[in-house]
Amino acid sequence: MFAVLPVRTPTVPPATHTNCYRLGRVVIDPASPWPDEQARLAEWLGDGVDAVLLTHHHGDHVGGVVDLVARTGAKVYAHADARLPFPVDGRLADGDVFDTGAGLLRCLHTPGHADGHLCFRHEETGDVVAGDMVAGVGTIVLIEPEGHLATYLASLARLVALGGALLPAHGPAIPDGPALARQYIAHRHARTEQVLAALADGPLDPVGVARTVYAGLPGVDPGLAAVQVRTHLTWLVEQGRVRRRDGVYERERA
To answer: Which of 17, 32, 183, 232 has a CB 3.0–4.6 Å from the CB of 6, allowing a cystine?
Structure first.
């Protein structure tokens, strides 16, 4: 049902493109900030674009919005928590239904990666435009404070319950969406236990934990790894299993 055009965007490698989806008279995430890609998208879309829906506010998802609005006069819709550098015409909430002219899309508030993150579920097929909840290439980066692991895991669990294919922002569609969402949940839980184990010999800062957890894995960016580790440490603190003191983390005593 959805048509898709990957457009080149300044995103996190290995992803190099963001998927722009079209259903009826609606476009989701016109993403590229570059004029050549914006022109290619406009040619692909042709006439009849009335609305732009946004999964979230990150630059590799909204870079082409202003250009597309100027070309088409389309109205822009996003969640109330999405922090956008341009005006919007309407704010969407969990459970809202949007008529595309080629089927209904139900809005699903799925925070954890970004404030105000939305997925869009096609009411007839059950397929879900998933934004940055999952990826068909690479992985999903959580960056505090809006990246919050417990919230992200709850949003993933919601996708498990929905069923249907997941259509990510980066990479190909995932036909068995629930299976991938379960894999993501299991992976994050396993990584959390690795982070906890890294503290067995005493306190460490996030960089020290990352060096232990990611030791021997090729191609790991140490800074990005530390950013990811921090979200796991925060979750462990929230669970009462770890405490933070003077920038380092240590296990709570039993």
So the answer is: 17
Q: Give CA angle at 174 (52, 107), nearest 5°.
A: 35
Q: Any catalytic annotation for residue 47?
A: no
Q: What is the DSSP string of 92-144?
A: E-TT-EEE-SSSEEEEEE--SSSTT-EEEEETTT--EEEETSS-SSS-----T
Contact 133, 156 (CB under 8 A): yes
pLDDT of residue 13: 84
- The whole domain housing 245 covers 199-251
- List, for residues 38-61, the tens digit of each pLDDT value: 999 999 999 899 999 999 999 999
Could you tell me if residue 102 is inside a domain? yes
**In total, how many domains does the chain have?**
2
The per-residue pLDDT for 138 is 83
Please state the φ and ψ torsions of residue 203, each to the nearest 5 degrees. -65, 145
What pLDDT is recorded for position 220? 83
Overall average pLDDT of the 143-147 stretch: 96
Q: pTM of this prediction? A: 0.95
Q: Is 118 in the same domain as 15?
A: yes
Q: Which letter, b or e, does each residue of 82-107 get, where b requires 16 or more Cβ atoms within 10 Å of its Cβ?
A: beeeeebeeebeeebebebebbebbb
